[in-house]
Write a structure and sequence with these properties.
Layout (H helix, E strand, L loop, with lengths): L1 E2 L5 E5 L3 E5 L1 H7 L2 H4 L21 H22 L7 H13 L10 H10 L7 H15 L8 H6 L8 H14 L7 H7 L1 E3 L2 E5 L3 H9 L4 H18 L8 H4 L6 H7 L6 H11 L5 E8 L1 H7 L6 H6 L12 E9 L12 E3 L24 E9 L5 H13 L7
Parallel strand pairs: 5-8
Antiparallel strand pairs: 1-2, 2-3, 4-5, 6-9, 7-9
Amino acid sequence: MFCGDDSSKYLNDPIYGHIKLQDYVCKIIDTPQFQRLRYLKQLGTTYFVFPGAVHTRFEHCIGVSHLANTLVTRLRDYQPELGITERDIKCVTIAGLCHDLGHGPFSHVFEYSFMDRLSPSVNWSHENSSETMLEYLISDNKIESDKLFLFDIVSNQTSGADVDKFDFILRDCYYVGLKSSYDCSRLILSSRVIDQHICYEEKEYFNVYELFHTRYTSAIEFMLTDAMLKANEHLEISKSASDPKRFLYLTDGIIEEIAKNSTKELESSRSIIHKMKKRNLYKLVSEALFLPLDIEKVGQDWISPEKLCEKKPKNSNLNPNDIRISWNFIHFGKKKENPVDYVNFYTKKEPTKAFRIPINKKMLCYPTTFGEHVLRIFVCDSAKMSDCKTAFENLITSINIPLY
């Protein structure tokens, strides 16, 4: 980071090059709450599989802030009738900067695995803390309700096409070593506001489609969750989620804190972490794909560790505590629907008229489904892998649901 001629500073980002950081942005970056993001990896446990994926939420949030500032500034310059003020630009920039302050250790592992298993009734989520902060910024800075499009810049609830997604697709692909074909700069340059919605020029349809088309480490996530659950009573990890002063120090470093702690209470947690570091991971028993319509018919309750054990071979010592079940819904951002159907476009001939484009009007060969449920079954003890596989095969034959 180096200083400019004014009070601003410049940061050399691997994705966007030199990013200008205004003084008000630097003041937030220099707080302990924001500096904490340096110790939260953007992709959680993915770096165990892709060693280059060590980027953090710190640089992601700065990138989102940069894109938010770029987009809202362009809208102000090219559509002065919108009445976008310097205060609006500042608020949107800060919202992009602060949108991930509420994340716990290892990305979504803390939220969806640890907290859900420990206290499902609490309904803790990083979005709640991020939304609370954004709502405070809006009310405190008196953003008027007739500028609803400002909300869509950082977090677009209609289509999911926002600068948060712009950045993490580019940044994640860069650090994982994958190529992304979409160009966010083209989308920003073609953007304009029509009827309170951010729209893109019609010719950018395929660029928008690639944004959603781009984007697993389940065994490691289960092991991290188990290690934290076993350590929770001694370290009171879950209490930090509701205490901002303690949450400030809750980062990915919790695993090393457990590993170096020699107390007897953490012995089982240390053992799990030791196995994880030696790549002695929980074993994948089976993996199956299901279409959304099939899951809607039968749900997900047909399988559980207990129900698997009911189908285990005779004389097997397999028990529910040996089994971990993972459900992932992989989709383009709008569950079973095509998210691009919710993006507004315009043409050069009619730049003030917004419309949506059905995918079958643009592509001769297009997906018939935009989501799939992935079921993965793991065992903690590799010696019980065969019994668990047999149990799954016995269970699936009794369920009228197709596998893919």
